Amino acid sequence: AAPAPPLEAGTPAADTPFQVLLFRVAGLTLAVPLAELNGVLPWPECITPLPGHTPFFLGVTTHLGRHVKIIDTGYLMAPEQHRPLQRRLPRRAETGLRHVVLMGGGEWGMACETIAEVLTLAPGEVRWRATRAERPWVAGTVTEHLCALLDTRAFAAELKGGGVSSGRNSS
Questions:
Q1: Is 148 in a helix, a strand, or coil?
Q2: Is the distance from CB of 24 to CB of 78 less than 8 angstroms?
Q3: What is the phi/psi pair of residue 64, to 5°?
Q4: How many CB atoms lie within 10 A of CB 85?
Q5: First and final CA of the chain: distance in angstroms?
């Protein structure tokens, strides 16, 4: 069977090798296409929490004169294994978070612990998801590294539209 179309228009095609950045958070390794990234920042000195947001929303920082909304990537990817950091943010040095991976035109930042490496992947090295009804921002699995390949355009669109859910009950 032919692989499912991997990512939105303008991102890597199913028949072309592409580069990804691997990063780690909450015991997981995640991959994002380099073509979709807007940079990587060291963990910011100041993150302003905004009350009333979901547990995965850590707050806002400023980068190059723009507000960047930082999300708790570990909580979104593995909510059953990861406590939300939002309430622990004042002690962020103890969280292990060291970087912010920018996406969505630099509007969103994914909190992560380490930046691992850049790889070039052939389309056959990704097990593309046939459907994306649940967590549509997960495009597939990088088979050699057993890590999720994120579609950051879909992720940013879900975040902007407020449709992202950790999969936990919101009670």
A1: strand
A2: no
A3: 50, 40
A4: 24
A5: 41
Q: What is the pTM of this model?
A: 0.81
Q: β-strands 108-112, 99-103: how paired? A: antiparallel
On whether the CB atoms of residues 35 and 18 are closer than 8 A, the answer is: yes
CA nearest neighbour of 33 among 106, 142, 161, 107:
142
Tokens of 24: 């780690």
Distance of CA 1 to the CA centre of its chain: 28
% of the chain at pLDDT higher than 90? 47
Q: Whole-angstrom Cα distance, residue 24 to residue 81?
A: 15
Distance CA 100, CA 88 (A): 17
Q: Specify whether the CB–CB gap between 164 and 108 falls below 8 A.
A: no
DSSP code, position 107: T
- For the beta carbon of residue 82, count every other beta carbon within 10 angstroms: 19
pLDDT tens-digit map of 105-131: 999 999 999 999 999 999 899 999 888
Cα separation, 3 vs 135, in Å, equals 18
For 147, phi then psi, to 5°, come to -130, 155
Residue 13 binned pLDDT confidence (cut-offs 50, 70, 90): low
